[in-house]
Structures are given as structure tokens and as C-alpha cells.
Amino acid sequence: MRNVRLLLAFDGTGFHGWQVQPGARTVQGVISDAITRLTGERVLPNGSGRTDAGAHARGLVANFMTSSDIPAAQVLKALNGILPPDVRVLAVREVPKAFHARKDAISKIYRYQVFKGSVLPPHLAREHYHYPFPLELDRVRAGCALLIGEHDFAGFAAKSGRVRSGGELRARHETRRHLFRSEVKAAGRRLIFTFEGDGFLHHMVRNIVGTVLEVGRGRISLERVPELLVRRDRTLAGFTAPANGLILVRVRYGRLQKRSAAKQCVSEPRP
Amino acid sequence: MRNVRLLLAFDGTGFHGWQVQPGARTVQGVISDAITRLTGERVLPNGSGRTDAGAHARGLVANFMTSSDIPAAQVLKALNGILPPDVRVLAVREVPKAFHARKDAISKIYRYQVFKGSVLPPHLAREHYHYPFPLELDRVRAGCALLIGEHDFAGFAAKSGRVRSGGELRARHETRRHLFRSEVKAAGRRLIFTFEGDGFLHHMVRNIVGTVLEVGRGRISLERVPELLVRRDRTLAGFTAPANGLILVRVRYGRLQKRSAAKQCVSEPRP
What we know:
The structure is a homodimer.
Chain A: E1 2-10, H1 27-39, E2 46-47, E3 56-66, H2 72-82, E4 87-95, E5 105-115, E6 129-130, H3 137-145, E7 149-152, H4 168-174, E8 176-187, E9 190-197, H5 204-217, H6 224-231, E10 246-253, H7 259-265
Parallel strand pairs in A: 3-10, 5-6
Antiparallel strand pairs in A: 1-3, 1-4, 2-3, 5-9, 5-10, 7-8, 8-9
């Protein structure tokens, strides 16, 4: 058996996210079908993480085990020949059997794109959230910076879902994440947010963006941001920014790409 | 009556070009319907020029006469409320009655986008032509530069159509155009071509791009480019690059925006 690693990019507009769901078009499902067509084997690839319906990826990592001996370069060409144009395999390589795209990830980099102008140009519509309101960029920037570090991000997690399972202590443990990078840059009438962390809770990036945009607009005080990290109360946060502005840019792994070694050889990822 | 000028942007993927055609979704048709819904008047707006099916625009100019007295700012909001998201009105203003979007244009700027990498990322697929072949950029650049100036571009015009009407002398006159700017820039694995001219023949930009790409690839000699301007033989040119890489970026007008004055007060447009 070989372990094959895929680097994937997709336009999320036409997908209900990564994870296979009955009756829905998902990236994992489309990739799985393409692998089956190529190898004759029925496999469900591991993804580096779930993505929201409508969110995009430039560098999602997946892996799958196969007994096929098709060389990596041919797997790339063949899969791209089978796949629809809204999902592409950017790179393929064989990796040690222990490699797992989700479990070995040491950090993920997300981008969130906002368009501030009054009219959203059609060529930006798929990958930008339209927020045509007066903003103080310095406040947005300060809001982002206050989130850097290891914190309990429960206040920025989706209300429903996994976080609530288990007791208070377990939940608190489960919602701690380390955010290495949290920043915003203006590029003309666009705002480009970048977040890098060792993991992200469900809707965490979208809730952070919705909150710091409200801070920039003066609807939420800057003091509310650290308060959210302490009080863990989702109702104090801003709105959930829509999925179409969200892009998974990159997933980082340890150099050896073995589950056990990954955490030893890499300290804090550099931005 | 008022003369209203519109600045338009559209994603051409879902349109059969600008010009109204029976049974086809066109930008002119969609705009015309939106104006009718807003004003109750049946008008066909003048466009700065036809665009090919599948080609895009960031700044097409149109104008129409109306007896409605809705202020320009409200026309903008109302039309964008009616129009589908793949076409947007970026600006609206009232102009002198003599202004005509096509007849008064003194130059047009087109961009053509190429992606050279082996796999075309989905987010670039709508507006980039995928040309994953080894290229000598200096040859592409030289091919572009040889076209600058006033020439007979019949060799770069679509085989069929208007150009053939009339006798040889008339045809020769009709196919002379002044190209002010013709250049290519590399941006990572993208090539961005820019062309500015006082007018463009049908498929002219796409035929130029197809030809200079072939020059860059070594399939057509650099000497062929000036030869095409002299021999006017379309069969010597390269292929017609696909419409989806083509973007009408901007249309320039004389300062006074009156048909008679436009040509007097403006000499050669600056890039």
C-alpha cells in the first residue's frame, strides 16, 4: 500500500464544503469518485480539515491509501482529467504511510477577503464579502492583534456543535487554540485578513472577521475583544461573516511529515 | 430628455456578449430590461463597442436617452437592485445630449490574461486563458512592441464579417487602426497583456495574443509579425486566443465629451 498526498484548490461556490454528505456535492465526494475512477478502489481521502459550504481553498491537503502503483505525476494528470474545473489537484506525492493530512497538520493559514467599495465588481463577487460601510482600519487592525496568542476561543465558535459536548472543563480545553498570526491589510478598496493558527473552531475565522469589522465600524468596542476571550460568550461577538470571503490558503506540516515526529521537529511556525 | 451615461462591469461567462440578439442573454439586453423596469421606457442603450461572447468588462461605457428625472445616484442604486450580480453599474452621470458612448470614444484599453502554470487554479479559470507551454517572454514582448503605431490590422481581423464588405481600397481603409500601447507583463505564472488603441477590429486582440504566444513558443518567427501588417493575410497569424481571457478595462473620451470637440482637444492618449 502507498500513501498518496494531494494538494487541492477549489472554488467553493458549487460545493457544500469538504466533507461527504448524502445528497450534496462535496469536495471530498468528488475527489473520492475521481480516485475510484482512476484506481478502481473505493477510498475516502483524509482532508486537512472540514471547510464551510461556499468557502474556497488554494491549498487544502488530503491523503489516501492505495494499492495502485500509478506514478504521482500521472495521478495528477489523470485526476485533473476526471475532476470538474472547479476543483484542481495542484500537486501529488507519495508520503510515508504514517502521514495523516488532518492529524499531522501543525498550522493552517486562512485568508478572508472583504470589498469595501459601494458597488461590488462582478469579478470579485465569488471570493469577497461586500461590506460597504465606513470603517476605521486602525481599529480593525487592533482588534485582530488582540487575538494573537493562545486563548480560549469559545466566544468565537459557532453556537451549535461539537464544542458543547462534554462538561465545562472539557469544553474549555477543547476551545483553546493558538493564533500565531492575525492581521489585516488594505489593498485599494479590499481588505485582506490573514489568520494562522494551530487549529480553528467551527466558524471561528468568520466570527472573528464579523467582530473586528463591527469594531472598525464603531458598533462594538475594542475592549469587547479581550472580554470575549475571557467570558466565552458568543452573544457578545459580532456577526458571522459569510463563507464566500473565506479561503484556506495553506496547511503546514512538520518537516518529517510523520505523526510522531511532526510535533518534535517544529516549534512555532513562522508567518 | 436627459442623456444618462453608465459605467458598467460584467463577468462575461454567462453572456453572449454585449449586443442584443434574439434568444440569447446579452449585457445590452439585460441593461435595457432593467432601464425599462426603472423608467417604464423602452430604450436600447448605446455601448462603447461590441464585446465577444464570454469576454469580460471592468469599464464598458453606455448611454441612453430618457425623459425620467430620477437623479443619477438613485439610478445607480435602482439599476443595481434590478440587475443580476454578474453585471454591475459602477457609476452613473448625466452628460450633454450630444454624447454617444461609441462614436465619442477616443481609445479603448483591453487586458488579456494568460496563466502559464501546468494546472489552472479554479479561482483564475474564469478570466485566464490556460497556456501551459514553455515561452520566451522576450519574444512575446518584442512581438507586442512591433505592433505599436498606425497599421493596417487586416491580418489580425476575424476572417468573416464586416471587414470584407466594400472594395479593396475601402477595406484597407476600414482596417487601419492606431495601437498606442501593446505590451505584456509577467506576474508570477500569469501574463498580463495590455492593448490600447483608437479602435479594434473583430477578434483583433485575441488574434494578436494568439500570434505573439506562438512567437514566444517559437512556432512563428518574429519577422512574421511586421509581415502580417503588410501582407494582411489572416492565415499567416496565430490562433484566436479564447474570449474568457479578454477584459475591456477602460474606454477613454475627450474632456468635453462632445462628439465634435472630442477629437480636437485630445491628442494621443497617455497610457
